Task: inverse folding
């Protein structure tokens, strides 16, 4: 979450977990215990030499805790689901100071709530991830000129459809469209195949698309590719989250809306922006029901896209304008996709604007479930009233405590 107050508090107490960075693999190599302060680059650096892995993040500098509690998209999602679906158990300190293990066998309601429910239930001091054998991968970034947008989008729709059938669950592609001060600048296909095999047929539509500005696909490992996926700037950021149906025409219209939205701010200091289209297939969503299910409420009958939208800039004086434009773009995209019958309510927590109703987007049944779990394990509602950061369970219609 790229906004002030998401993970700390002004004039209050911040509990710093950054030194809890333990990473240990069980003797039988089926569980990896990870501390909440660890980052994904450290996890993969530990596991790669052992030919092991877990379902985790795609940018090395991202923290394990925040990504996993918010869901956590992964290069392994077509095989196992997202990061929260790969957690075998959580060690949690509750509001009353009690420490419990939440798993499918112990406190299964809390376990399900933590799979996407954010920071609303306790402080997780250890994530125990299911661990699997993993050799090297074939991965890299393909850069295309922005003039190839329509062809790229159609190939991405086709990939989402094919991947959703389960034809090859080792393949992922995250397609990023970028802007600079002159408008749309380039397209990046972040292609990852979690086997050490080059140019598999399901990804060939992207590798065969020309012209290409650069292409660094190679046999490598997770440690290497997550370094390449790590942002290097330290700018101010405004991000937002959208979901909609698997439809290239919708994706193209979203890019046009973004062109219009970015025009008034392209001259602010340090401006850059992106729209990242991430296929979330029926295959991925199907894994979310494993081990009692997660709390996100996604429909396993549809291939969809998650859109991560972001603007980077340098000056705090531009905050108000950037956030206003971001909010307006979100509202325009929502209205358009609803009018076309292509809208999905779900908002991915880790990308969302602070004004977006993330928990409500999980659906009424899941909202009611999460509130029930919260009252059961946090009777004084400490994590709702005294921890204002993140997305709260009652920031939704009917949300009075």
Result:
């Amino acid at each position: 979450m790229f906004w002030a107050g998401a993970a700390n508090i002004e004039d209050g107490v911040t509990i710093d977990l950054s030194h809890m960075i333990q990473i240990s693999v069980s003797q039988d190599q089926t569980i990896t215990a990870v501390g909440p302060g660890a980052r994904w680059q450290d996890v993969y650096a530990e596991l790669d030499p052992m030919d092991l892995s877990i379902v985790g993040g795609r940018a090395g500098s991202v923290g394990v805790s925040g990504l996993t509690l918010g869901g956590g998209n992964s290069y392994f999602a077509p095989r196992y689901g997202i990061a929260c679906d790969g957690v075998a158990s959580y060690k949690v300190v509750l509001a009353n100071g009690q420490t419990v293990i939440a798993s499918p066998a112990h406190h299964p309601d809390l376990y399900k709530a933590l799979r996407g429910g954010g920071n609303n239930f306790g402080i997780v001091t250890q994530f125990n991830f299911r661990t699997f054998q993993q050799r090297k991968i074939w991965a890299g970034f393909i850069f295309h000129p922005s003039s190839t947008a329509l062809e790229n989008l159609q190939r991405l729709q086709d990939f989402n459809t094919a991947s959703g059938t389960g034809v090859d669950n080792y393949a992922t592609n995250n397609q990023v469209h970028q802007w600079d001060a002159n408008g749309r600048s380039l397209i990046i296909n972040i292609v990852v195949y979690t086997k050490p095999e080059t140019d598999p047929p399901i990804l060939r539509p992207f590798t065969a698309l020309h012209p290409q500005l650069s292409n660094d696909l190679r046999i490598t490992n997770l440690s290497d590719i997550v370094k390449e996926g790590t942002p290097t700037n330290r700018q101010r950021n405004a991000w937002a989250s959208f979901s909609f149906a698997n439809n290239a025409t919708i994706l193209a219209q979203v890019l046009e809306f973004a062109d219009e939205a970015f025009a008034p701010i392209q001259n602010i200091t340090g401006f850059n922006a992106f729209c990242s289209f991430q296929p979330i297939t029926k295959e991925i969503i199907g894994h979310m029901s494993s081990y009692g299910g997660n709390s996100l409420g996604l429909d396993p009958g549809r291939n969809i896209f998650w859109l991560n939208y972001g603007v980077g800039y340098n000056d705090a004086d531009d905050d108000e304008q950037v956030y206003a434009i971001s909010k307006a773009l979100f509202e325009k995209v929502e209205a358009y996709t609803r009018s076309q019958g292509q809208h999905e309510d779900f908002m991915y927590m880790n990308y969302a604007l602070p004004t977006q109703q993330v928990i409500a987007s999980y659906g009424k049944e899941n909202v009611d479930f999460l509130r029930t779990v919260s009252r059961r394990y946090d009777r004084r509602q400490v994590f709702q009233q005294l921890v204002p950061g993140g997305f709260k369970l009652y920031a939704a219609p009917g949300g009075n405590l």
About this structure: The radius of gyration is 20 Å. The chain has a mean pLDDT of 95. DSSP finds twelve helices and 15 strands in the chain.
